Amino acid sequence: MNAMQVLAPAKINLSLKILRRRDDGFHEIETLMAPISLADKIDIERQSRWIDFSCDDPTVPIGDENLVVRAAKAFFEKTKISGGVGIKLQKKTPHGAGLGGGSSDAAATLRTLNQLFETKLSREELAKLGSTIGSDVSFFLFESAAICKGRGEIVSLTKLKKKLSILLLKPVFSVSSAWAYSRWQGSKEVAGISYQPQNLDGQSFVNDLERPVFEKFIFLAQLKTWLLKQADVGASLMSGSGSTVFAVLHPNADVDLVIKRARAELDREIWTCACETI
Q: What is the rounded CA–CA span in Å between residue 199 and residue 211?
């Protein structure tokens, strides 16, 4: 086998609790994440040498700062293979969105290279390698909902009680994860905004990063509040560090109507995606 095409699903955080800031600058967290049906597409082909990477989104960096390139380099360094690879990425998941798109792309790259070059690295070995690339990469390697601890790299697999219908909404701006975490400790709640856990069908939805992010990006607080007032929505939360806010939809919800209202009442340019947990 010389070439493969794979999907790299995005994720949402159903809960995200920050426990403390660590001495190494990272934060100790506990988060429940679930992969969703929104996915990037990656074509990977073996070649004699070099790592050639391209992407259909011109805003995505294509050098060493790209997690896919870093994943490929880490794989070849780990396995000592003297080969190369051509990688073409088709982006569907927006970046700077709190949906883990770059980390998922890196995980899919590691998993695919392991198959193409028949290196037989275990899932645990790949996850350890992935943790050196990004905090969420290990999670994506297991292709399952999971509770993640440490800085996100300690993964315990779990199952959601039921499949969730999700509506993602993202304004044009992005939020830096590093910035959001750096502002967590001194941030204050915005008056009139609910940060309390929401319970729906036995699942608790809460995100400790809403406090610092909403303090600066008030539109995201308004978006969450607006969603919670919609009859079709059972819960609403910012995913990760934003800027995506998601709604958990009731059965038989009219998702097109919710999108139409959001564009009419909030932001006519807002990006949306109806999807589900997988």
A: 19
Q: Which residues are catalytic?
A: 11, 136
Q: How far apart are CA 44 and CA 5, in angstroms?
A: 6
Structure-block tokens of residue 44: 């990977």
Dist. CA 246–CA 253, nearest whole Å: 14
CA distance 112 to 116: 6
Beta bridge partners of 28: 20
pLDDT digits (tens, 9 = 90+) for 156-200: 999 999 999 999 999 999 999 999 999 999 899 999 999 999 999
CA distance 160 to 150: 21
CATH of domain 165-276: 3.30.70.890
Average pLDDT rounded to a whole number, residues 75-88: 95
In the chain, domain spans: 3-157, 165-276
- Domain at 3-157: CATH architecture: 2-Layer Sandwich (3.30)
